[in-house]
Design brief:
Layout (H helix, E strand, L loop, with lengths): L1 H15 L37 E9 L12 E9 L12 E5 L8 H4 L1 H10 L2 E5 L13 H4 L3 H4 L4 H18 L7 E6 L12 H6 L6 E5 L14 H13 L1 H18 L4 H8 L9 H17 L7 H11 L6 H13 L14 H12 L20 H12 L7 H6 L4 H5 L6 E6 L17 E6 L17 H29 L8
Parallel strand pairs: 3-4, 3-5, 5-6, 6-7, 7-8
Antiparallel strand pairs: 1-2, 2-4
Amino acid sequence: MKHHSLLFLLLIFLTHSPSFSATQSWTTIPRMSPIPEWEASLHHHPLAVDAEEIKSFFFKQTLDHFNYNPESYTTFPQRYLINFKYWGGANSSAPIFAYLGAEAPIDNFPNSIGFLTDNAASCNALLIYIEHRYYGKSVPFGSREEALKNASTIGYFNSAQALADYAAVLKHIKNTLHAQNSPVIVIGGSYGGSLFYAVLASWFRLKYPHLAIGALASSAPILYFDNITPQNGYYSVVTRDYREASETCYKTILQSWSEIHRVASQPNGLVTLSKRFNTCHLLKQPDELINFLRLMYGYGAQYNEPPKYPVNVICGGIDGASLGSDILSKIYAGVVALKGNTTCTVNGPTNESETTVGWRWQTCSEMVIPIGIGNDTMFEPNPFNLKRYVEGCKTTFGVSPRPHWITTYYAAHNIKLVLGRFGSNIIFSNGLKDPYSIGGVLENISDSIVAVHTVNGSHCLDLLRANQSDPEWLVKQRKEEMKIIKRWIAQYYADLHALKDNPKFHTK
């Protein structure tokens, strides 16, 4: 039942997602959250965290860390959660695991990001979850309406400010708990582990090494900016996933786009398509259906987690042809296999969440990931068009994106050369079934900046709570990551002990 609900909610999310149109390619960047927006309660297993273990706090956060105009000193309440259950205490310099929040409220992450709680006891670790500014209850200017009112107020919503937020919160917590000698490991998933948060995880480690001794960045596509990775990469991996699942499924999907256009071009063709796919409203153009299907296939691959594997579910429906042997009947059977029985599928009522709005701003300012579709995928070609992208952002927010800023501020070009002798203690983890893995770090950069990946893994799967049904390769991946983290902590304690024995370098 859990996975049936997951698949049902997946379709709900897809029907509410931004469209992929010829005039608004700026909406095409798939979200990168560790858990899908539709999956807010799907990882609440019997072993989930007891709500009484989680304590909520607010930190008086500075609006602008990098400017000294009077308005910069304005503050807002930033929320963070702490689980003290496993902590060995400051006197023993027990470690701190800090999860750096992604593009969503922090409420569900103590349950969803099970990697922390699963490993806290063996490390006697304090668990911290810090909410990203402009999400959840960490909203400047008194209300979400004011914070998102225009480009002047939402302009403080960027990665550099968020990193500085996390630094301030961590420093405050360590001071409050008298835990100056407790080593901090930061964990981030996807956006929380990507170049923003390979900013929030790996780049936090590089920019604030005095606050974090190591970082785990899961599914972090830090090489998907500024055309370092081919624009076609994301949908090429999606295509590969479906083709590996079933050659006939792949071929049916490949042929379906021309069939949709053929039917749509006939008299009452949109009515025919609307009935065939049980749309919630009459289709106004075939792109509505095409957008829906592309997003369904893409997110199915991105979150293709065991034991159900949405890609296999979709292809099982398509290949089973339970609703008819023609191409469109097969495609609809794939939709039904994923969604189950419901009143309607495509173009349902829209319900834009704070995550949808926030992610749209982030991708219209600095998070410009040039994802396009070329001629060698199972989709219709739709190359990334920066001019069109900029026009869409200007229309929506009145600002132009800065497509080169991420690589300027955080680096990414020639990453092995740049980081090979700079930085340490970073794990880049990926599942190669995840389309975003094409932009991830898949080879070791140095002895201590390492890549851990699995052939069958999906987006941020290693960060989710362990289950008895987990395949051995996933169990092995998590064990390898913790082995590395424990080695970092042991080395830190050895260095701390050596420092205390040398009064010349010892400071309180």
